[in-house]
Amino acid sequence: MRFFNFLFLISCLITLNACYINKQLVPLAESKTIGFLSDGSFVLQDPPKGKARIYVYRDKSHVGSYLGYTLRIEYQPKTDSKGRPSYDNYQDSLGYMAIGRTFVADVDAGHPIAVMAKTEATSYILFTPMEGDIYCIKGSMKNGFTMPRPHIVFVDKNTCEEAWIDYFSSSNVEFQNNWRKVYNEKGGRIRIDKSSIAKDEKEQKADDKAMKK
Which of 29, 4, 22, 45 is CA-nearest to residue 160? Predict the structure, then answer.
């Protein structure tokens, strides 16, 4: 009898773990304290004016190592009755979190955002990025019912610097650029550099003008 009770307890714990939704709801006051400055760091750099910078990396844990996920962002997120954002309501896709990969994103500062990842279930962080601050997010995977689930959390400056030294490489930049190209071709919304658009439009107008001569 004790053996069956033990099995029942273990199954309950596994079920609770699989049902757990990873989330961080960070109030404004805390958002002002979890960000940090580069302060002469050889690894991290401060964002441009009017922006906050998010460094993102995924660890090399064996859990869900075969599975990746897209990190999305929604500005001024619309949440449901339980305060949860929707993974389908987003403006930008910041990068793809494959094992051991990294990327950097500069986001608009001073208003709430939701950063979200999803496979079987959604993991999310709600916070208000402050202008000039750096934030660092660590991604990993946890076991779920049918597949591993994303697990995204803030980490401190020292942890971020150490991870960036371990994981960053030029191949990661190339990887993310290729991902962006494929993702755009599939019709996914992805963060767009407005200055690049303006430059392309200017060059296109110049070409059109030259063609007419």
Answer: 45
Q: Tokens at residue 204, please? A: 């296109």
**Backbone phi, then psi, for 48, in 5-degree steps?**
-70, 170
Give whole-number Cα distances, 11 to 101, 133, 134, 150, in Å. 34, 43, 41, 22
Structure tokens at 186: 């599939």
- Per the prediction, the chain carries an average pLDDT of 80
CA distances from 144 to 42, 116, 119, 134 (A): 38, 17, 10, 31
Residue 31, C-beta contacts closer than 8 angstroms, at least 6 positions apart:
127, 128, 129, 130
Instruction: State the pLDDT at residue 78.
Output: 92
Instruction: Output the pTM of the full model.
Output: 0.76
pLDDT digits (tens, 9 = 90+) for 70-84: 999 999 999 998 889
pLDDT digits (tens, 9 = 90+) for 86-127: 999 998 889 999 988 899 999 999 999 999 999 889 999 999
d(CA 77, CA 96): 21
Task: Count CA within 13 A, CB hemisphere, residue 187.
Answer: 0
Distance CA 212, CA 69 (A): 47
